[in-house]
Amino acid sequence: MVLSPLVTAAIAGFILLNAIVGLVTYVTLLERKFAARMQSRIGPYRVGPHGLLQPIADALKLMMKEDIVPTAADRPVFNLAPVVFLVPCLLIFATIPFAPNLGVADLNIGVLFFLAVSSMEIVGLFMAGWGSNNKYALISAMRAVNQIISYDLPFIFAALVPVLLTGSMRLSDIAAAQDGLWFVFYPVLGQLAFLAFMIAAVAAENRVPFDILEAESELVAGFRVEYSGMKFALIQLGEYAHVLGTSFLGALLFLGAWAGPGPIWIGPVWFLLKALGLFLMLTWIRWSFVRIRVDQILAVSWQLLLPATLILIVATAVVVVWGG
Amino acid sequence: MASRNDSLTAATPPAGAPARAIREIDYTGSERLTMNMGPQHPSSHGVFRAVLTLEGETVVGVDAVIGYLHRCHEKLGESLTYVQYPSIASKTDYVAAMTSELAYVMAAERIGAIDIPRRAQYLRVLVAELQRIASHCLWLGTWCMDMGGALGGGATIFLYCIRERELVLDLFESLVGARLLYGFHQIGGVRYDLPAGWADQCRTTIDLIEKRVVEYEEMLDENTFFQMRTQGVGVISREVAETVGISGPLLRGSGVPFDIRRADPYCSYEDFAFAVPTEEAGDCFARYRVRMAEFRQATAIVRQILDGLPEGPISSRPGVKSVVQVRIPKGETYARVEGPRGEVGCYLVSDGGPKPYRMKWRGASFSNLAVLPHIIPGHSVADVVAIMGSVDPVFGEVDR
């Protein structure tokens, strides 16, 4: 029996979606355990052995919570925002190949699609901030627009370095091109691009030290201050999915994706481990620093990161054209 | 949008009050935003309401609203006897409970010209300095959490600091039996002597804390992000510092070497060698440096006490049998001590009975808050929490 490509894609998408949601739930536990160890705590321990059922308990709790909509909120915008926020965060996984020929859609503009869709989260974010009709949320939404626009540029430029080195925007091509040498080991260019990518990723994910959107000591919880129950859960899910997606992208662009010792079928495991490694790196940064101010964050982007990545792209282009 | 909930948020000044100072900045936006920070807010360190007027992200005016934690402490002081009140005095500044108890009993002893045995004096200094360590631990943790987020590096430092504070609280627990509010001081001396083995436990704790303070400094001193948030932020000039009546680490962070332990020694502080650390810059980082240096001075004093603790009674008066057994002759006085946050003073008027006729607290946090309108305008919202944290107010002491 031959299924039409549409049906296959739908089935693959369904499986992937569920896998991602499950993974994201457990990634929160990973982060909590990791942070707890950094802070000489134990972390979640009571629900299930070693707290392994904690994410499920959290999800159940959030589902059972009362859904509160502020009286003064812009109701349609407020209700729609979590969905608008979540969809792009899950959509970014569509183009990622988890092994050769194992993915939902291996587009020939994979990197472009990923970057474009991933920056769409800002729409949902701003809707949440505006629709809440809350001053903290509004300020947070303004900051969000400011920051995400500033950091998406260096993020994209850094991601373009592997694209230039490969000569293709198809993610599976980029992964295959690192068969001999991971791009993170590419002399100078690779390391600089990886560094810029990671810094921009921290900012694009709104994590400490760049988490001015949430900034709970100033803005209480920023754009999600009025959300509760399942809507809050959707926003959290979207945020972690985005971080995880970015980790997968980083592992694919710089760490050789599924390349690793062992038989070919173990490739996806390697890919997952690398992505989780990057995720833990982001977590490590998050739980180590204090947050910086909005003006300082913008200065870092426009005065340092953006020019640096621009020069990096030009240098990469020169190397690709004349170097080899 | 702003108009819909302005009625909830705008501060309504009392009739006839002078217009509040708003600093004009070069702002091209069209609207000012009034934003509440508090009374329930993650970084309000209790219940404090700051009504901020914002232009964009810049604060141009700040109104402080206090009183949410008012518990009639001064009236309580008039209705409780000299025996009863010291354990309530702890509750003014609950982060440094030993300090306020000490101020109260000192005032009463001064009116009554009551002698304090030397051992009791040394024990008072001992707990005061341990309390300073515990209080500064909490300050560093909460301040970093203000800047670093409860879901970020700030929480990491917070938990480290709380870990060390617990050790000091353990010491207090084995000394007094309580961890937060002690009732350790009484008129004429102190209530409890050191239990067996306590001195060794204290030495171990002090050694550990000294090591950990070095760790904090390694984490923070050269940390670029920390410097970006604290250096040049919330500068209190020497003139402002001397005018508005701030005290403690704030004052010393602005280059004024004033410390009551040195300027007006009490409880035989003159017996101990210690330095009064000062910094010139007057910004948040300077206040941080001063407090970190005070950790070391406090541990040094504690060590000197443990080395030279005299033998003898711990109180010049008999143990408590009745709540009205202490009567203080007619008179009035002001006693002050150097608390972790600055000058904690108690003004006491006695009419010869078992209760004070009138009691007035001078809370360090209350006076220190007066500096906020001088330093906050012109800073961004994010700096407000950094400045608030560096002032280290405890609202139990502000509102009393």
Question: What can you see in these coordinates?
Answer:
The complex is a heterodimer of chains A (324) and B (400). Chain A has 324 residues and is mainly alpha-helical. Helix content of chain A is 67%, strand content 0%. Chain A contains twelve helices and no strands. In chain A, helix 10 crosses helix 11. Chain B is globular and about 70 Å long. Chain B is built from 16 helices and eight strands. Helices cover 47% and strands 12% of the residues of chain B. Classes of the chains: A mainly alpha (324), B alpha+beta (400). The interface between A and B is large, with 35 and 40 residues.
The number of helices of chain B is 16
N-to-C SSE string of chain A, H for helix and E for strand: HHHHHHHHHHHH
Strand count, sense and barrel status of the largest sheet of chain A are: none
Q: Reading side by side through the largest sheet of chain B, how are the strands ordered?
A: 1-2-3
Cα shape of chain A: globular
Fold blueprint:
The complex is a heterodimer of chains A (about 325) and B (about 400).
Chain A: H1 5-38, H2 54-64, H3 75-91, H4 110-118, H5 121-131, H6 135-166, H7 171-177, H8 189-204, H9 216-219, H10 229-254, H11 267-286, H12 294-323
Helix pairs in contact in A: 1-2, 1-10, 1-11, 2-10, 3-5, 3-10, 5-6, 6-8, 6-12, 8-10, 8-12, 10-11
Chain B: H1 2-9, E1 33-37, E2 49-55, E3 58-65, H2 73-79, H3 85-89, H4 97-112, H5 118-148, H6 153-176, E4 185-186, E5 189-190, H7 198-220, H8 224-230, H9 238-244, H10 249-253, H11 260-263, H12 284-307, E6 331-339, E7 342-350, E8 356-362, H13 364-369, H14 372-375, H15 381-391, H16 395-399
Antiparallel strand pairs in B: 1-2, 2-3, 4-5, 6-7, 7-8
